[in-house]
Amino acid sequence: MTEAPPADAGSTPSTPAEHAPWRGRTFGPASEEPYRRRTSDWARLVVAALLLIVLAAHTGHVTGGEENLFELFNTLPDQLQSAFRLLYSLGGLWALGLVATAALVGRRWRLARDLLLSGVLAWAAARVLGAVVVEHGGFTDSIHAVTRLGRSPSFPLVRLAVVVAVVTAASPYLTRLTRRIGMLLWIVLAFAALYLGTAYPNDILAALVVGWGVAAAIHLVFGSPGGRPTTKQVSASLEELGVKASDVHLAPTQPTGASTLFLGEDNGGGLWVKVIGRDEADAQLATKLWRFALYKDSGPTFFWTRLQEVEHEAYATLRARDADVRVASVLTAATAGPGVALLVERRVDDPRLADLEPGAVSDRLLGDLWAQVARLHAGHLAHGELNASHVLVGGDGPTIVGFASATVAGATDRRPHDVAELLASTAAMVGDDRAMAAAVAGIGPEALARSLPLLQPAALSRETRASKGRKRKELRDRLKHLRELGATAAGTDAPALEQYHRVKGSSIFMAVGLFVAVAALMSQVGSPEKVWETVKDANWYWVALATFLSLATNVGYAIGVQGCVTTRIPLIPTTELQVAMSFSNLAVPAVGGTATQVRFLQKQGVDLPTAVAAGGFLSTVAGIVVQIMIFGVALWLSPDTFDLPNVPTSGIVPVVLVALAVVGVVAGVVLGIPKVRKTVVPPIRVAMSSLWSALRSPRQLLLMFVGNTIVAILYGFCLLAALEAFGASLSIWTILVINIGIGTIASLVPIPGGSVAVSSIGFSGALTAFGVPTEVAVSAILTHQIVVSYVPAVVGWFATTDMIRRDYL
Fold first, then answer.
1. How many Å apart are CA 248 and CA 773, to the nearest integer?
2. 435: which strand partners?
3. pLDDT band at 545 (very low <50, low <70, confident <90, very high)
């Protein structure tokens, strides 16, 4: 909350609700400006797409539970038919009424356009899905489904999809009562459809998802109102909390995230009023989870309620004040009025450090600022966003503001992030030498040394990376110089990055491995004509689904990597890293992908020993443990019988003894030779410390478990989709056993392309053993290997190029 008051703060314009009270009761009094494209709408669109894929695959496979639910309503007395027909028609009338009321009566033309488009697109999308999924039509059939006006398949239920789309698109504009009525009509319409026998539960759920997703798409295209409390509501809430404020108005510059900043005045001076309203879409739980997972700059602390969020910021600010840090005065943090959470602080009308000219930033000011940072960190606090934009400069010295992302230093110590962020931010203003001298004098060489690995573009906030409009190469060179300068000042070595090299010659081995796999598979069939007959009749929708599932595993891999390190790394670049590793892993198994990941983690500020441990040992162990658990569950639940060969136990003891002997020799060499011990032991100690921290953290264990579980399950469904593309099917539990067992064995082959050959032969043999025709098994496995190993590698080449360009590698 560093925004200065506007130069000429006038009164807030009246809202349409003030001119038409009935309109306020229907559409809500909240200001509709500015229109925003919310992260929550992106999340809704992605979730809707994933759910539709699952629901479409389930069409035609009615479970016993669905049948029972359908019969529960469908067998109600016939005397209720007239009432249910009326209710079935009421939903469409409600959607039409919203459009008509908004356009003709309320004269909200923008809203009417959004609602009309939502209804039309939901109707078209539902009919196209019905033509493709139920009637198995092609592109021409899809066009006919939209242009014709006859009956359509029940999947998804078209009328319900239209009503849900219109009501959801109107939701940000509606009052709670009007929204609740619309949601009640969804439920009534769904029950009426079951009673009248027009749809099964799967069709109804698909209609809800289509309407929900279409509304999110409309909001993304055109934006939607913020749904923030009005100025009158904020003024009333302040009065309820005992703050007699006047001239309450929106701040000209709004913070990112789930809050709105208002400015005001009282008898003591200016006020900052941070508000999180009940109707703000970005303040909802799903959005907070989404931002928490994707963005480092959303802060390390997760809050279940808006009250917890404002109370946390107030607590951190008061802790900093008690540590003798100059901060804004906190007046109150509470909820009031219509469920509004407010944080009220005394406004500091000083300019931001980021807005000063370099000549106005004196050495005395820098020294005072770093002294404030030293006191903050001595109080076991980390600011989380400590850059020049969160420092105000007045006659008494610098004031640190904006503690929304602050943490109490503990298991995850973010104090080195503060140092790196502020050092890079001030160096961009006053030069490297002056900024470094002030930092060393203020916090000391030891604290400076801990921050050096974090002086990487990817480890800094977007604000700092974009300061003064610096280009990417200029920023990279400046940070490299800062690392070297800081290492000299701290009396240590500058952290070195893992070298990254493009792969060149190994592509020959990849091709050889593919040809070996194809030749071995063809030898099983004997007749290539049979394979061609099978391939040409493949269902390419299932092939597309298999490709999508294969690429989606990178999200699971990324979540697993997030759990391997204590440093907060963003999900989207980490996912792109996993895509890039598809290229390097295929060319140079094990080594190429690991080197790429280590370099990425270093760019995120992770030191080299921790990056090596996380990118290699910890991620591998986590993956193996989770796969063993899933393998055991799948083996237990699989309806098929597995004849596992007897494991010879006679040779186990000698192997164990040899392994122990090798470990003993290596340990003796490391511990017995001082030069080797000095080189090897410190990195191992740092790595083991990082591993122990990860194992003690419930958050990291959960991320590792969830990420690797997602990967294993998605790969199982990918193989199942490849089988379905050729008209065959097996239990998903059997597929998981086959996929994990054979995939693990193939991954141990260290020859480029060798894992492809081994897994191809093993998969086809296992599928054939479970009754899949040989030509179908061969076709399915070739398709599976292409979408798992080669399509991601092609995409990975582009991802690698992009990450190098953006300085993530």
1. 74
2. none
3. confident
